[in-house]
Write a structure and sequence with these properties.
By secondary structure, this protein is of the alpha+beta class. Helix content is about 35%, strand content about 25%. The protein has a five-stranded antiparallel beta sheet.
């Protein structure tokens, strides 16, 4: 019985020390992880937005753009890009849950007129070598200069203006739909042409 008690005490001590060590490691890495995420966001914003001299990741506008399945508010964060006091563009993340392998998140940048200045798929689970072809700059460039008035933001198979890779239509369709839905949310919030807000 004494051996069992010693074993239990030893295991409790080891578990407590392990939990303490994990808590310390978590605390030490929290700052660097947050800093890396911010760097990645700023780099992605530079890829999709017109030129800016502010920090769009710090100048944001959160807007309720819908409800989730449980009825809770879904918020979209708009990142405001400026040169001086002039708003040059806005970026926002848009989600489509109908990718071949699940959710596809697209970062969309628009200029001051609501025209796409760039897009970038920032998270997906698509098949390497096929679905991830949509993470290439050449495909992103197909969206540049388009808006809800001058283009049909959908794949050509669905009557739109966006090319796709045969065999990976679902991925292209999901990404294009995410861009279109994001542009509609943007227009609902900002109107046809942005003003300095």
């Amino acid at each position: 019985m004494r051996d069992l008690a010693n074993l239990v005490i030893t295991m409790v001590v080891i578990a407590a020390l392990s939990a303490l060590a994990l808590a310390q490691i978590n605390e030490m890495t929290k700052g660097p992880i947050a800093e890396n995420k911010k760097r990645e966001l700023v780099a992605a914003l530079k890829d999709v937005l017109p030129p800016f001299d502010n920090d769009p990741s710090a100048e944001i506008k959160e807007v309720v753009t819908g409800k989730d399945k449980k009825g809770k508010d879904v918020k979209t964060v708009f990142y405001l890009a400026k040169q001086g006091d002039q708003l040059t563009g806005t970026a926002f993340r848009s989600l489509n849950r109908e990718g071949y392998a699940g959710d596809i998140w697209v970062l969309v940048g628009v200029d001051a007129t609501g025209t796409i200045s760039g897009i970038k798929i920032v998270d997906h689970k698509e098949t390497p070598g096929l679905g991830d072809k949509y993470t290439k700059q050449s495909w992103y460039d197909l969206f540049k200069g388009k808006n809800l008035d001058n283009a049909r933001i959908a794949v050509k198979k669905d009557g739109g203006d966006i090319d796709y890779v045969t065999g990976a239509t679902i991925t292209a369709r999901a990404a294009a739909t995410a861009v279109k839905d994001g542009l509609e949310s943007f227009r609902k919030e900002f109107g046809n042409v942005q003003t300095d807000r």
